[in-house]
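[Meeting: bench + compute handoff]

Bench side (C.D.) handed over the final construct sequence. Compute side (W.E.) agreed to return the predicted structure before the next meeting so the bench team could plan truncations. Sequence as handed over:
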Amino acid sequence: MTSEKGGAVPGSSRQVTAQVVGASESGHRRDFLAVEEPLGIRVVAESQGRSARHDVAVTMRTPGEDRELALGFLFSEGVMSDYSAVARVRECEAPQAEEGSIVEVFLAPGTEFDAERFRRNVYTSSSCGICGRAAIEQVRMLCPPAAREGLAVSSETLWRLPHLLRAGQAVFADTGGIHAAGLFAADGELITVSEDVGRHNAVDKVVGRLLAAGQLPATDRILLVSGRASFELVQKAALAGIPFLAAVGAPSSLAVELGSDLGMTIVGFLRDERCNVYCGEERVLGAAD
């Protein structure tokens, strides 16, 4: 995990010893691995004058920015629309019999919380069984279409973004095995970057930071992810008001369908000074021609 624009957070990687077996070398060598540990996300809400704790999720993540991760996850799940719904956030260790940590998000008095919804299946998982069109319709009810004007990016700026993101990936430099999400201005300035073993966690950390800073919706920003672009990542970007999602890898068909329906720009295979613009080409200068 990376804080702000660079610098690995302590505890995000771990040193191990590996046996190297190869045609030209063999023996033991020191290696670093990205840490993967569970994080419990808990909501504390008032009900009839009493506080109740609700365990809503456990995610396997890379330690660091746990508060931002919890806030971004809860925002993307519709628990809150802005930071005024949060009274305070507390990090605590899991019980001794369990591994990992817990983040408790205390909701402000009067904030409604539907605990039952987290006991039912939701559509954020690609294996949950809900059809693509129904999933898109549910997101459309929550997200207004992105504004067609206001954000324009040159192709030359786009081509620079993966290099800027890579330069900010401190944990990847050590481990070679971690995802990243970077938020950029239209001129290519890197605003913030987060790393995590889960690509959705990396995006949640970015969104959670924006939420806490009162910078949502981020209608003039570009979100770049280091891997592929799934339906879930488009959903998270749309809920945060980010109209432009780019990926170093490929988008899924449902990701492009959702992005197109919401008036977003979806870019894939952004590397080696080229990219594919799947929808919203009006935000890429010269692409519409």
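W.E. noted at the follow-up: The CA atoms of residues 163 and 271 lie 9 Å apart. C.D. will use this when planning the next construct.
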